[in-house]
Amino acid sequence: MNSKELRIGNHIYIDNKETAITATDLLTMSQNERFLLEKQVINPIFLSESLLFRLGFKVEFEVSPNRVYSHGNFLLCSNANNTFNFYVGQQSTGKAVAYLHQLQNLYFLMTGSELIQEDQPSGNDAVVKVEDKETLAKKSSIRGLLGF
User: Fold this and answer.
1) 24 with 136: CB under 8 angstroms?
2) What is the pTM of this model?
3) Distance from C-alpha of 105 to C-alpha of 5, rounded to nearest angstrom
4) 25-29 contacts at long range (C-beta below 8 A, 24 or more positions apart)
5) Distance of CA 47 to the CA centre of its chain
6) What is the DSSP string of 50-77?
7) E strand spans, the chain
8) Tens digits of per-residue pLDDT, 44-87?
9) Ramachandran region of residue 61, left (φ > 0), alpha (ψ -120 to 50) or beta?
């Protein structure tokens, strides 16, 4: 996994805790990627059946040893490489995904919406806040681990 594969909102493990990536996290990763990967501070989240169920996928059918999962018009077919082939309807995209961030990116590319909807305030509860770089840096999960 490298930081160029990630978008704001992608879920990965940071210090063994599932975390949604922020803009500050992306900046920190791009500047310290080699160190973070070597120390295994950041790791992708492997796709699993329980994770697919959590995301709203369901088992469409099974052809032993493979299972096909569906989410609306999208299909994921498990394969022997511990990855999933991604289909839109009956059409293969030619993409195999193994990690949650890859699936999030494909889903966003195809639909324009996020696979994982983060809790967001709406209406009068929505507040736009402008923060300085130092405040944003303190909020970054990764910067905290690095002691920045």
Assistant:
1) yes
2) 0.75
3) 8
4) 25/140, 25/141, 25/142, 28/140, 28/142, 28/143, 28/146, 28/148, 29/3, 29/142
5) 10
6) HHHHHTT-EEEEEETTEEEEEETTEEEE
7) 11-14, 17-20, 42-43, 58-63, 66-71, 74-78, 84-88, 91-97
8) 999 999 999 999 999 998 888 889 999 999 999 998 888 999 99
9) beta
